[in-house]
């Protein structure tokens, strides 16, 4: 097991170096140099330009600059935002809880709805329930979620007036951020209506973000279920006279869920990509919106740092999924 | 003389075998009702794109100053001249959607062609030569796959400059690793088989072995992945357009149309609803065909 673990971690090292090279070299691909980009429209004398280039270390050889950058990454220094002048990592950690809260709610919706729907569809293969669920799943899978979000806003915020259009909580409420999760913090604060407000802000973006993972999980669960139900041990369990419910829930489901867990893990990338669109639509102050805003503000240190951290998160989650998979399915450990 | 006749016989039997394979494929594909519906919708879309000037009631950029934000024709305030209503600057939405089909299909085709060719070539090289070439290639692909595709495409477009062409290049780049992986895996399973060894013994060079001997036998998963990428490309390009980094206004690209309509969502539902519906229907049709292709080409499922 230890060898398996070490091997998986070691594979990540070259990938992470590659990711850092991309994040580093990306600013070099732009026309002009970083100082010109930072100065923007302002005119700068050649001496002043050279001075800043020297002060920021941009006149050193590229390899030295890269190693310096890599050293910064390892000590947690990702540079400073050009716009807010705050450290990139600090900005990331202020905004990340919002994205995490949204993503957790989305994946919960996707799992809690997707797995039962997939199981029932698989067990009742060919029934009207199966056909309807798979039809909906296919539509969800093909959904342009930015449009789906706008439609939900039209219906629930515009026509019905049930939910607010943007943000995480009404401005009426103010309380200290203990966990960074609005749902939990609003409960801790004990203010009447705060939790309700947080929940009503969260529900639409969470549904939008859950759409594609939900469809993928439902489809995957159904096909895993179909495969497992054809196995000999399921037939044996049936032959022993176990109730159909016990056969499905104990014998079949446990094995069918193994590939589904991998699928859930692989949704992290989908969730973070979806967060870019969802957070933009609902003005949700998380890292997806932060990245889009930075692209438009040409805040290069933030784009660089954000790329790096997001890729790092995805790699870590994929590693965890790999390890979990090795834990629940010992057959693959030796590969 | 006898040789020529024998050659002809071989060619003839090959042709017959190919026809039989196609017939078998069609038999399985046509059993899938969803796939047939998807195929029909795609054919209609292609027709609409090709014959856009004949079908669209107006030009995509014609502005009618007396018809701003007009609702669809079936509502009370609508006019028959504008079946799906007009947008905030008085352009006919139906006409823009019909012309927009050209962009979406074009984007899908270009992205898939770039990603497929690049992916197949790189994957063939990696799977055929193995060793450090393979390691370097696969690590680079891992790096690309470590980013959420939309984020990488967004940043790439920001570097290259917003626009449809750059968006297509960026999307092709982020979709390519899937083709590399599939091709490489397929090559690695095929390369040890007898027919490849016999071709090698017969003196076939590496290029011939790669392209003529091995590649045709790896096509099934690549075709399925290509349809998936086709719909992904359309979705991602629309998303980039929606974020303002894809096709630029006044291009009647569906995602860009949505971006322009965003501020009117609570006043005029039709400017938002129809472009998104067009994206959904197109992507859905392609995915239906993709599912059908997968079932028809996957020998594991054929027995059931």
Written description of the protein model:
The complex is a heterodimer of chains A (335) and B (304). Chain A has 13 helices and no strands. By secondary structure, chain A is mostly helical. Chain A is globular. Chain B is an all-alpha fold and 304 residues long. Chain B folds into 2 domains: 1-30; 35-301, MetI-like (MetI-like fold, Orthogonal Bundle). Chain B is built from 13 helices and no strands. Chain B has helices at 2-30, 33-50, 52-55, 93-129, 131-145, 149-160, 164-190, 194-201, 206-214, 219-242, 254-261, 269-297, 299-302. In chain B, helix 4 (93-129) packs parallel to helix 12 (269-297). The longest helix of chain B is centred in the middle third of the chain and has 37 residues, at 93-129. Chain B is elongated, with a radius of gyration of 24 Å. The model of chain B has no long low-confidence stretch (mean pLDDT 88). At the A-B interface, helix 1, helix 6, helix 7, helix 11 and helix 12 of A face helix 5, helix 6, helix 10 and helix 12 of B. Chain B: Belongs to the binding-protein-dependent transport system permease family. Chain B: It is found in: Cell membrane. Chain B: Keywords: Cell membrane, Membrane, Peptide transport, Protein transport, Transmembrane, Transmembrane helix, Transport. Chain B: The chain crosses the membrane at residues 35-56, 103-129, 149-175, 218-244, 264-290. Chain B: Residues 101-290 form the ABC transmembrane type-1 domain.
